[in-house]
Amino acid sequence: MNHRTKIVVLGSALLLCATAASTAAIASDDAPRQREAAALTGTAKLYRSAGDDITFSFDAHLAAKDNADPMKATGTFEWSHYLDGEGARAKAKVDCLVTGGKVAVVSGVITDSDLPGAEGKRVGITVHDVGRGDRLGYSWASTGSPVETKELPKCVGSAPFEKVRKGTGDFTVVPWRPDF
Fold it and tell me: What is the rounded distance in angstroms from the CA atom of residue 120 to the CA atom of residue 53?
């Protein structure tokens, strides 16, 4: 094979590879995607007039195959609360996710925290997804700390009474559609 023939063969091979990759991408884009049963995602800071630095992040999902059982939800959520250099942070593993319209309730067990006594406690958070004016509530609203919460059941949170600080993020709720 001479040099010119090698270039033509190599160019043809590259074109075939590119065409195959493009066809595969189109085929995968045309394939129907199954919507997950429910989700709560996003990060935002809460508004506090005293200047508290409070951030909540969610990555909670209920797979389509688990639509009948919100306790099969997976993912994590985390938060931090600091004021004048004092405060704490925590991360929880999701154990339940229920959504209805633009409201989500997620619960989980704290797996990592610098708040003494928090690890192993179940907490619940409620989010109301109303665009850039989202709201949030948490199970320890009346006790002041997740450590003070006694045996919280799965998928329990409080009314979403806190406001998200403008311009800090946005939560997204995928509504659950159970088969009843």
Answer: 24
Strand order across the beta sheet in which 74-83 lies: 162-163, 135-138, 122-128, 103-113, 86-100, 74-83, 53-62, 38-45, 170-174
pTM of the model: 0.80
| Widest pairwise Cα distance in the chain | 82
Q: How far, in Å, CA of 148 to CA of 145, rounded?
A: 6
- What pLDDT, on a 0 to 100 scale, did the predictor assign at position 10? 38
Phi, psi of 103 (to 5 degrees): -115, 135
Strand, helix or coil for residue 104: strand
pLDDT of residue 34: 77
pLDDT tens digits, 59-69: 999 999 999 99
> Where do the H-state alpha helices sit in 33-91?
none
Q: Number of helices (H) and strands (E) in the chain: give both, helices first.
A: 1, 9
Token readout for 13 is: 């091979």
Exposure of 18 in the CB half-sphere (CA atoms within 13 A): 6
